[in-house]
C-alpha cells in the first residue's frame, strides 16, 4: 500500500473544447505504462480531490478561453484559490507542474494557466517541474510532447524528495526501477536527438510491434521526379529515418447496430453550456456586392417568444450540423451508406485497457448513425497524432502505412504541421489520400472531438429592436491546396448561407401566394454573455470603437442602443462616440452605409472610414487601414483615454488588425506623453486591466 501511494500523482485538467482533457488522458496512459498511477479528475470535481491535504505531486493541464479567461470548468476552482483571506503558506506543502494551452494570436496568451500558476505560487506551492506553455497557433504538440517526456524525470525527482523527507527508500527503489528505461537521456525538456530504432511505446505491443526501419523498403524508394514531400509522399531524411511514434491508444468504444428506426435525441441534450432556444430566421440580407472578395450576410432572428436576453456586445452560439454531402461521403467510404438511419448503441468496450473509459458526453447512448456524424462529431477536425497512430492499424497498403507512421512521428513533425495542420486536412481528406485505410466506426467516435457550436457577436440592441437578434458573418472559404484538392465553406457559415438562400433569393425558390418567401427555417442558439465588452455604465463617458469588416458587428448594437437611450432620456449627458471602420472597396463591401444616419442624428460623433483596395488619385494617398487612420487622430485618442477616462473597443481580426491597432495606440501614448515605448506599453496594460481597452477578436 505504501509503495502504491508513492507511485501516485494527482492529475487535474480544465478544458473548454476537450484539448486539455485529451492531453491529460495521454499523460495517464503513459503513466500507466511506466508503473505509475495518475489519479485523474476534471478540476471542477472538487469533491474528488483536496489540494489542502494533497501530499503527492500534482500535474495540471489547463486551457484558455475567450480573451484570456480560464475555461468554464475551472471557474469555481479559480474563484476558490483567489480568496484573499487565504494565508501565503496555504499551499506550502504542494508540489506541482502545470501545462498551459493557449493561442499566441490572442493578447492574453495562456492566461488561464498563468492565472492558476501565479496564484498557486502566491499561496506557497512549489514547482517540481517547470511550467509549459503550448501554443495552438504553431502546434500544441511542439511543447506538449517534450513537456510530457520530461515529466517522468521530474516525477522521479519529486518522489526522491519525498523519500528524503520521509525516509521511504523502498518506495523510491520501486519507482526508480520502473522509470529508469524511460528516463535514459531525458532531462527536463532537453530530449536526445539520437533515435536508434522505431519504438512503439504501448505496453501490449512493445515486443511484437517494434519496427526496425533503418533502411527504406524497396517499394518506397522515391522516383527521381518525387523530390518534394507531400501529404502522401516523403523524402529523405524522413523517408529513411527510424521513427519514434506515439503509443497505440487502446480502443474503448463498442458500437452495436440495431435493425430498427427510432427518434434521435433533441439537440438541446447535446449542450451543457446553458438553455437552448429554437428560433426562426426572419430576415437575411447580403451586405456585400457579388464581386466582393468576401460575402457578408446579416441574419435576423425572432426571439420574441423566448426568454433569451442579451446586451449589445454579447455573443451567442449557433448549434450547427456537418455538411450533409460530407456526411454521406464519409458513410460511403466506411461502407455504411445503407445503415445511416439505423439506431446504434454506443457503450464502453468490455475489457478495454483504457483507464477510466467512459462514453464521451457528446455522444448519445442511443441514436442513428447519421445523427452522430451530423450533429455530434467534428468530422472537419484536424486529426491529432494519436488518431493518425490509430489509423496506421487500419491501413493495409505498406507505403500508405509507412507515410501515416511518419506523419505521427517525431521525425515527421514538420511534415505533420505543413501537410495536415496548416493545410486544414480532415479525416475525409486522409481517407481519400490513403484509400487502403478503412477505420472502424468506434475509432471515429473515440478520436473525433465534439462538434462545437459556433460563436457570433450580437449586432443589435433589444432596446432598439425588441424581440429581434441580428448578427453578421462572412461566409468562410477554404480554397483548395495540394494536400486538400477540394474547396470548402465553413461548417456553420456554409450551412447558414444555404439555409437562408430562399430569403436571399426568393424568386429562385418556392414562393407563397402573396409573392414572398415561405421559408420559416429555424436554428438552435444559446447565450454566451460577454462579461466586459459592453457600453460604459455611465453614458457620459466617451468611447472609441474600431471595427473593420465584420468587426463592426457589435458596434451597430452599441449605436442602436445609444440612439434609443438618447430618445428616451433627453436630459441625460452623453459622451462623444468615435467609430473607425475599414474595408477593401467602398462600393463593394462597405457593410453599413446607414452609419451616416447615426452621424446625422448625433448618436455617432465621429465616423472615420478607409478603403484599402480602392485606387486614389489624391496627391497624398489616404490611409489604407484603421490603424493608420487612428494615428491621424493621436491627440484625440490620448485625450479620450488619458484625460477623459474613456473606453476604447477593438473588434475583428487579431493578427492583421488588432495587433496593429494596439501598436498604434502605444505609439500615440508614447508620443503624446513624451514617454518611452516601454512606459506606453505599461499604460496600455493598465487600461486593459481597468477594462477600458477592450477587445473582441478572432484569428
TrEMBL record:
<dbReference type="InterPro" id="IPR001433">
    <property type="entry name" value="OxRdtase_FAD/NAD-bd"/>
</dbReference>
<dbReference type="InterPro" id="IPR001094">
    <property type="entry name" value="Flavdoxin-like"/>
</dbReference>
<dbReference type="Pfam" id="PF00667">
    <property type="entry name" value="FAD_binding_1"/>
</dbReference>
<dbReference type="InterPro" id="IPR003097">
    <property type="entry name" value="CysJ-like_FAD-binding"/>
</dbReference>
<dbReference type="InterPro" id="IPR017938">
    <property type="entry name" value="Riboflavin_synthase-like_b-brl"/>
</dbReference>
<dbReference type="GO" id="GO:0030586">
    <property type="term" value="F:[methionine synthase] reductase (NADPH) activity"/>
</dbReference>
<keyword id="KW-0486">Methionine biosynthesis</keyword>
<keyword id="KW-0521">NADP</keyword>
<feature type="domain" description="Flavodoxin-like">
    <location>
        <begin position="9"/>
        <end position="152"/>
    </location>
</feature>
<dbReference type="InterPro" id="IPR023173">
    <property type="entry name" value="NADPH_Cyt_P450_Rdtase_alpha"/>
</dbReference>
<dbReference type="GO" id="GO:0050660">
    <property type="term" value="F:flavin adenine dinucleotide binding"/>
</dbReference>
<keyword id="KW-0288">FMN</keyword>
<dbReference type="GO" id="GO:0046655">
    <property type="term" value="P:folic acid metabolic process"/>
</dbReference>
<keyword id="KW-0597">Phosphoprotein</keyword>
<protein>
    <recommendedName>
        <fullName>Methionine synthase reductase</fullName>
        <ecNumber>1.16.1.8</ecNumber>
    </recommendedName>
</protein>
<dbReference type="InterPro" id="IPR001709">
    <property type="entry name" value="Flavoprot_Pyr_Nucl_cyt_Rdtase"/>
</dbReference>
<keyword id="KW-0963">Cytoplasm</keyword>
<dbReference type="Pfam" id="PF00258">
    <property type="entry name" value="Flavodoxin_1"/>
</dbReference>
<comment type="subunit">
    <text>Forms a multiprotein complex with MMACHC, MMADHC and MTR.</text>
</comment>
<keyword id="KW-0285">Flavoprotein</keyword>
<dbReference type="GO" id="GO:0009086">
    <property type="term" value="P:methionine biosynthetic process"/>
</dbReference>
<dbReference type="InterPro" id="IPR029039">
    <property type="entry name" value="Flavoprotein-like_sf"/>
</dbReference>
<keyword id="KW-0560">Oxidoreductase</keyword>
<dbReference type="Pfam" id="PF00175">
    <property type="entry name" value="NAD_binding_1"/>
</dbReference>
<feature type="domain" description="FAD-binding FR-type">
    <location>
        <begin position="274"/>
        <end position="536"/>
    </location>
</feature>
<dbReference type="GO" id="GO:0009235">
    <property type="term" value="P:cobalamin metabolic process"/>
</dbReference>
<dbReference type="GO" id="GO:0005829">
    <property type="term" value="C:cytosol"/>
</dbReference>
<dbReference type="InterPro" id="IPR039261">
    <property type="entry name" value="FNR_nucleotide-bd"/>
</dbReference>
<keyword id="KW-0274">FAD</keyword>
<dbReference type="InterPro" id="IPR008254">
    <property type="entry name" value="Flavodoxin/NO_synth"/>
</dbReference>
<dbReference type="InterPro" id="IPR017927">
    <property type="entry name" value="FAD-bd_FR_type"/>
</dbReference>
<dbReference type="GO" id="GO:0050667">
    <property type="term" value="P:homocysteine metabolic process"/>
</dbReference>
<dbReference type="GO" id="GO:0010181">
    <property type="term" value="F:FMN binding"/>
</dbReference>
<keyword id="KW-0949">S-adenosyl-L-methionine</keyword>
<keyword id="KW-0028">Amino-acid biosynthesis</keyword>
Amino acid at each position: 500500500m505504501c509503495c502504491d501511494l508513492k507511485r501516485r500523482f494527482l492529475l487535474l485538467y480544465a478544458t473548454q473544447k476537450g484539448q486539455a482533457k485529451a492531453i491529460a488522458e495521454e499523460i495517464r496512459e503513459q503513466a500507466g505504462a511506466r508503473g505509475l498511477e495518475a489519479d485523474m479528475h476534471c478540476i471542477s470535481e472538487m469533491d474528488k480531490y483536496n489540494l489542502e491535504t494533497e501530499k503527492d505531486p500534482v500535474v495540471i493541464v489547463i486551457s484558455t478561453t475567450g480573451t484570456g479567461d480560464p475555461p468554464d470548468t475551472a471557474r469555481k476552482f479559480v474563484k476558490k484559490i483567489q480568496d484573499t483571506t487565504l494565508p501565503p503558506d496555504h499551499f506550502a506543502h504542494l508540489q506541482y507542474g502545470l501545462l498551459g494551452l493557449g493561442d499566441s494570436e490572442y493578447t492574453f496568451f495562456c492566461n488561464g494557466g498563468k492565472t492558476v500558476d501565479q496564484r498557486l505560487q502566491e499561496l506557497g506551492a512549489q514547482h517540481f517541474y517547470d511550467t509549459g506553455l503550448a501554443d495552438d497557433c504553431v502546434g500544441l504538440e511542439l511543447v506538449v510532447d517534450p513537456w510530457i517526456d520530461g515529466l517522468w524525470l521530474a516525477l522521479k525527482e519529486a518522489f526522491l524528495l519525498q523519500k528524503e523527507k520521509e525516509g521511504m527508500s523502498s518506495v523510491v527503489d520501486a519507482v526508480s526501477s520502473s522509470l529508469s528505461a524511460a528516463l535514459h537521456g531525458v532531462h527536463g525538456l532537453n530530449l536526445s536527438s539520437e533515435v536508434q530504432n522505431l519504438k512503439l511505446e504501448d505496453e501490449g505491443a512493445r515486443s511484437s510491434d517494434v519496427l526496425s526501419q533503418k533502411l527504406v523498403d524497396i517499394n518506397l524508394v522515391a522516383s527521381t521526379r518525387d523530390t518534394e514531400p507531400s501529404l502522401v509522399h516523403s523524402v529523405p531524411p524522413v523517408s529513411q529515418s527510424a521513427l519514434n511514434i506515439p503509443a497505440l491508444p487502446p480502443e474503448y468504444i463498442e458500437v452495436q447496430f440495431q435493425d430498427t428506426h427510432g427518434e434521435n435525441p433533441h439537440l438541446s441534450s447535446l449542450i451543457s453550456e446553458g438553455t437552448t432556444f429554437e428560433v426562426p430566421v426572419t430576415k437575411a440580407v447580403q451586405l456585400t456586392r457579388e464581386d466582393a472578395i468576401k460575402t457578408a450576410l446579416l441574419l435576423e432572428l425572432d426571439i420574441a417568444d423566448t426568454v433569451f436576453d442579451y446586451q449589445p456586445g454579447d455573443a451567442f452560439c449557433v448549434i450547427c450540423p456537418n455538411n450533409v454531402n460530407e456526411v454521406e461521403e464519409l458513410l460511403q467510404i466506411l461502407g455504411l451508406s445503407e445503415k445511416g438511419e439505423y439506431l446504434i448503441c454506443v457503450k464502453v468496450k468490455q475489457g478495454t485497457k483504457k483507464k477510466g473509459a467512459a462514453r464521451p458526453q457528446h455522444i448519445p447512448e442511443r441514436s442513428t448513425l447519421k445523427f452522430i456524424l451530423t450533429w455530434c462529431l467534428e468530422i472537419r477536425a484536424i486529426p491529432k497524432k494519436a488518431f493518425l497512430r490509430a489509423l496506421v492499424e487500419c491501413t493495409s497498403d505498406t507505403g500508405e502505412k509507412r507515410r501515416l507512421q511518419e506523419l505521427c512521428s517525431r521525425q515527421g513533425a514538420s511534415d505533420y504541421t505543413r501537410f495536415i495542420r496548416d493545410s486544414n486536412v480532415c479525416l475525409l481528406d486522409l481517407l481519400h489520400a490513403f484509400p487502403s485505410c478503412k477505420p472502424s466506426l468506434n475509432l471515429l467516435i473515440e478520436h473525433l472531438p465534439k462538434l462545437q457550436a459556433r460563436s457570433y457577436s450580437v449586432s443589435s440592441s433589444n432596446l432598439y429592436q425588441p424581440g429581434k437578434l441580428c448578427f453578421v458573418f462572412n461566409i468562410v472559404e477554404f480554397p483548395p491546396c495540394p494536400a486538400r484538392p477540394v474547396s470548402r465553406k465553413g461548417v456553420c457559415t456554409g450551412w447558414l448561407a444555404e439555409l437562408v438562400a430562399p430569403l436571399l433569393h426568393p424568386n429562385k425558390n418556392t414562393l407563397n401566394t402573396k409573392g414572398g418567401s415561405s421559408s420559416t427555417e429555424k436554428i438552435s442558439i444559446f447565450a454566451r454573455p460577454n462579461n466586459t465588452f459592453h457600453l460604459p455604465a455611465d453614458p457620459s463617458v466617451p468611447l472609441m470603437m474600431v471595427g473593420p469588416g465584420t468587426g463592426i458587428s457589435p458596434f451597430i448594437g452599441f449605436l442602436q442602443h445609444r440612439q434609443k437611450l438618447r430618445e428616451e432620456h433627453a436630459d441625460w449627458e452623453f459622451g462623444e462616440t468615435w467609430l473607425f471602420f475599414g474595408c477593401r472597396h467602398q462600393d463593394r463591401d462597405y457593410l453599413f452605409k446607414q452609419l451616416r444616419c447615426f452621424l446625422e442624428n448625433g448618436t455617432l460623433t465621429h465616423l472615420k472610414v478607409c478603403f484599402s483596395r480602392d485606387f486614389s488619385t489624391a496627391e497624398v494617398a489616404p490611409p489604407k487601414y484603421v490603424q493608420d487612420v487612428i494615428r491621424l487622430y493621436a491627440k484625440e485618442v490620448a485625450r479620450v483615454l488619458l484625460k477623459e477616462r474613456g473606453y476604447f473597443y477593438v473588434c475583428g481580426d487579431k493578427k492583421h488588425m488588432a495587433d496593429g491597432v494596439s501598436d498604434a495606440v502605444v505609439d500615440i501614448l508614447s508620443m503624446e506623453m513624451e514617454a518611452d515605448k516601454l512606459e506606453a506599453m505599461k499604460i496600455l496594460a493598465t487600461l486593459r486591466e481597468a477594462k477600458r481597452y477592450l477587445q473582441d477578436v478572432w484569428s
